[in-house]
Amino acid sequence: MDTQFAALDWLVVGLYLLVMLGGGWAFARLRREELGEYFLAGRSVPAWLAAVSVLAATQSAATFLGVPDQSFRGDLAYLGAVISPCIAALFVAHVLIPRFYAMRATTVYELLERRFDARAMRWAGGMFLVGRVLAGGARVYLAAIALAMVAFSSVSAPAILSAAAMVMAAAFLFTFHGGLKAVIWNDLIQFTVYTGSAVAVLAFLYLSIPASNAEILAALSAAPGGVDKLRLLDWSLDLSHPFSVLAMMTGLFLLNVANFGLDQDTTQRLLASPDARTGARGLILSALGAIPIIAVFMAVGLLLHIFYQRPELMGESHRVASSFSGEKVTVFVHYILTQVPPGLRGLVTVGVTAAAVATTNSALNAMSSVMITDFYRPWKEARGGAGGPHYVRAGRWGMGIVAVAMFGTAALSFYWQRYTDMPLLEFALQVMVFAYAGLLGVYLVAVFTGRGNTLSVIAALLGGFVTVLLLQPFMIGPAGLAFPYQLCIGTAVAALICAIPPGSGQALRR
């Protein structure tokens, strides 16, 4: 298996690094002296740019590596499930975003301060920090596996941790000076790179298959075992199916509501627009824009099925290995390692890196904004306060702390994913459920009812997290319960806990 980088690969990587350094230098010249400028880009982001930034933040290395594996193993049910984020985007655009803008919020958790008190806000912010460190570290780990295999020809722990450190360092250095505006324009660069590399691989793979379009489609609709790999909707009621229509209308809807409206990593971009209408339009555009991107990666997986499992169409047999030096690999990684020519291999490596950097730098800025706005600033102002430049410097220190925590989680994920043996896409989504369950339950009660108090909010956040933890197969949960249904149960438990006290407030109006 020839996995060595050629000179042309290193040239492509070098050009990418030059672009990154040039962008970093340009934004290093921008001095953000106020929190509104540093964390919300002065609320000047247009809808189209907010949409691209949200796409870059949500389409991570898990998408790059996991989605082709999903369609290679099964069908197009994950693509059919994009109905769920579209519905969730409409819900968040009309229910949550107007409320955030009415408050002139810097973080989404300030809503709980108005509804309850500052302690409720800090607990929700803390739950976000825990969940995002877990999810962000897991995504860095997934990207590090591919980078270590392709660039270093090794999957040893030192190689994977070195790759993870490179991703963290690149994201941190680019974001350090320019704040959210640097993140958003960097997202545009990374989005262009990783979508371009995916399209290039799709074209190369398609041209390598000596079969007509009609033959390919016929083969996909009648795969071995009578499987229709072109099926878009999975109507199964089996609770182990994570992308069925039932899951789409329940847990996946909740997952996307939490991602779009309760996760500061995503919502921060929408709050950086001039007004609620612009932010809402950016969110809806991002949900629609995700459809063709996911379709490209799903198409890669389908063509990999033809390439490796349909020798009657290829005219020869291609063997796909399931491991590399003892490390399990997805079919896409195997294809990159063994079939992609020099130059294109470098571009794909850059694409994986771009997906990881775009996700990571956004997480760094979002988590730092919560740490400073919801925790440090109130503490500092209770002791005399400070000027805007002080909080910007504190935000940069916060990003350093978060970067170290995410790197530690990436190292933890090295062992976690091996124990659970989950497909990469499901692993990345599963990690997000832990924090989202409590947040969803609390916000449903806070926005739509007048019940609850600060203590019930705290209990609900913890109850949702613990419920999802107990539903894991390695605890006492039933084997095969897919993550969307774990989220449904966790959210229901959290909402019931939060709503137990009658409360003294009113549901939040727009």
TrEMBL record:
The keyword Transferase does not apply. It is a multi-pass membrane protein. The keyword Translocase does not apply. InterPro entries: Na/Glc_symporter_sf, Na/solute_symporter, Sodium:Solute_Symporter_SSF. Keywords: Cell membrane, Ion transport, Membrane, Sodium, Sodium transport, Transmembrane, Transmembrane helix, Transport. PROSITE patterns: NA_SOLUT_SYMP_3. The chain crosses the membrane at residues 6-27, 47-65, 77-102, 123-149, 155-176, 188-209, 243-262, 283-308, 347-376, 397-416, 428-448, 455-476, 482-500. It is found in: Cell membrane. Gene3D superfamilies: Sodium/glucose cotransporter. It holds the Pfam family SSF. Belongs to the sodium:solute symporter (SSF) (TC 2.A.21) family. This is Sodium:solute symporter. It comes from Sphingomonas canadensis.
